[in-house]
Amino acid sequence: MSGRKGMILVGAMVGILAVALVAFGNPVNMGICIVCFIRDTAGALGLHRAGVVQYIRPEIVGIALGAWLMSLKGGDFRTRGGSAPFTRFILGFFVVIGALMFLGCPLRMVLRLAGGDLTAVFGLLGFTAGILVGVAFLNKGFTLNRTYNMSKVEGFMFPAMQVALLILLITAPAFIFFSSEGPGSLHAPVAISLIAGLLLGAAAQRTRLCMVGGIRDFVMFKDTHLISGFLAILVVALIGNVITGNFRLGFSGQPVAHTDWLWNFMGMLLAGLGSVLLGGCPLRQIILAAEGNIDSAITFLGMLVGAAFAHNFGLAASGAGATANGKVATIIGLAVVAAIGLMNMERSAEVTLKGDVSIGS
């Protein structure tokens, strides 16, 4: 899977999987959505009580376990952490707040475009703008500093958590919630979803598939390697949607989407900026966590809590549009994430200055 051809093949596979999952029962234009699936899982665990979005999504479990197994096979599993873990928790929290304002992660943004949802264009514009702002921070020296090696046992905790979630899904104890209507009630069979997740996780681990990284690398280095995978997803999913009758071009009446263009833009602006500072999109954070990156595992927990907050406090948008609480939360999130960027940029500059002084003396 190395090289641009490998990335395009993986993108094509993801596009096929997304279309297939919809055919088997997932919501339209939501064959794969990392943030939506984290939100549904948070609801199933009772972290929020929005009854229409509660289901332990086996795709997330599969992505994590597929990446974990592949990292073990390829020698990439290495437990490390200590790079501003609580800052990463906060960034993960606000990435999800932004994504749920738009109603989808970067991957679902591409799948919405492939389904003919023109409201996703404003999300793409906001996402790109957020990445550009993030790149400006990177060029000014932003860093969350280095990681440190940790006990291998620590690295096994995240995959173990996913196994526990799978057991809860299969056994369905009374304290786990399952939607009887709405998006949470629409899902492919567990085995199919799990297999799709395993394939996606393994492929993403080997190719480092990441929408944020694709646009970032194109802007900073004119490198189209990563972004070619998402272009392949777009093309293949579009063809698949046309074949299956799920392509509908337009702004209104799109599944699990709203037409408030400004807040589609603002939500993905926040998600894009936060993801650049984290070093990857929500999908990439799960892959890194599965490889033993404890900071990314904490970022995942931040996203889980963010999804719960979004529904407990009316921050998430719906088909009716953005909520007043969600608009305020998005603005606060942009301010917090920008402050994190500025403070860590300044710290980097101070460290560099002190290093220069000590060398000179």
Helix content: 55-70%
Order of helices and strands: HHHEHHHEHHHHHHHH
Number of strand elements: 2
Low-confidence stretches: 351-361
Summarize the biggest pleated sheet: 2 strands, antiparallel
Q: Could you say which structural class the secondary elements and strand pairing correspond to?
A: mainly alpha
Features:
361 residues, mainly alpha, two-stranded antiparallel ribbon, disordered C terminus
Layout of helices and strands:
Elements (H helix, E strand, L loop, with lengths): L2 H22 L9 H11 L13 H17 L5 E2 L3 H18 L3 H9 L5 H20 L8 E2 L2 H20 L18 H18 L3 H11 L3 H20 L16 H18 L3 H9 L3 H19 L11 H37 L1
Antiparallel strand pairs: 1-2
Helix pairs in contact: 1-8, 1-10, 2-13, 3-7, 3-8, 3-12, 4-11, 4-13, 4-14, 5-6, 5-10, 6-9, 6-11, 9-10, 11-14, 12-13
Structure in a nutshell:
69% of the residues lie in helices and 1% in strands. It has 361 residues and is an all-alpha fold.
Structure description:
69% of the residues lie in helices and 1% in strands. It has 361 residues and is an all-alpha fold. The chain has one domain (3-349). It has a two-stranded antiparallel ribbon with strand order 1-2. Helix 11 packs parallel to helix 14 and helix 12 crosses helix 13 (294-312). It starts with a helix and ends with a helix.
